[in-house]
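From the pipeline queue, job 12 of 40. The input is one protein chain; the requested action is below.

Action: predict structure.
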Amino acid sequence: MNYTKSEVLQYVSANDVRFIKLFYIDIFGNVKSISIQPGELDRAFSTGIPFDSNAVRGFSSITEGDLYLVPDPATLSVLPWRPQQGRVVRFFCNIKWPNSSPFDADTRQLLLNTLDKIKKLGFECRVGTKCEFYLFKLDENGKPTLTPQDYAGYCDLAPVDKGENVRREICLTLAKMGIEPELSFHEAGPGQHQVVFRHALGLEAIDNLETFKTIVRTVANGCGLFATFLPKPLQDEAGSGLLINISLYKNGINCFDGEELSDEAKSFMAGIFAHIKEITAFLNPLPSSYSRFGSHNAPNALAWTRKHSGKLLRVPLSRNGEIGRVEVRSPDPSCNPYLALSLILEAGMEGLEKKLALKQQEDSDEKQIETLPSSINEAMELVKQSAFVHKVLPAAMLESFTKEVHVEPLFGKI
């Protein structure tokens, strides 16, 4: 719902809201939160609520003082797993400096800026995501293990698929928050699952994805399980990907509709191909991200196809009312999706502005084409050398991301 500030204040007053959670995103895509009472909400909209940036990894290298959270009123949503008497609502927030200017490393603001650039070029983009995750058992002390909840495979049913009820509860909780998933099913790995989301406007799509990840972890914990979005939690099994589908509209017409690719679609894809290696570190920020590439149908080849295969881009034919789109298949769920989508869109926009030709042929021979970086170290070297990345990202944001040591997080942290 696209609430205004006045509508939000009225809703909170009339609907027994007792706690308000202010969600914000750190440089690595983790959701952080501060809770306030309803009486503080007007101040939050007017001047923001302060938090200690020095305590947030990735922010402390930019500033040692307070930053301020300003709620986006359009993101008001009741948290259905919290008590319905004395309700708890949440907002996504933009991060501000004390003088109310945007914080340099606020990746949600970065995506807003990118979407505004697209609009000024005469385009609109809609985004759908497909996110995979694993469910693991807890030990007797309540700590995560590497024992999958089940050993089912792709699209298996209960009782082999023991995650059916968990997925059901995830989807029902999403629906209560106004987010309608399109599909959900057991994926190829043991204890692995996928939820597919309908297309939405760019910022809304990524806010929905972050909400989804919070719901998955909350529902899994309530079921005595641990959910992880690590890209490769089990070395010999399928990795988890975050597939990003982009539809590009000009004058109300989808550039990816039809059997033949439009000139705009080709240039947009060419822009992605031109810069994908330079931005891979942001799409795949963990060492284990790179062991996923090239196995179990995960992409590695810088090519495109209309089929299901290990190519970077897929452009399925839009049949039976399906929305035409390009599917970017390399990102994984450990990335900051605001940052990842911004960079993908900026690359595509450069292709549009320069009218780049799409050199890659459909279903090219993989022996004759380039591949994605093979390690986080190789990917980070490409970031350092990239004029494109340095042009697109604010200096403080880039410094914050590259300054941190990109090591695998402790199991249970992502």
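Job complete. The chain is about 30% helix and 25% strand.
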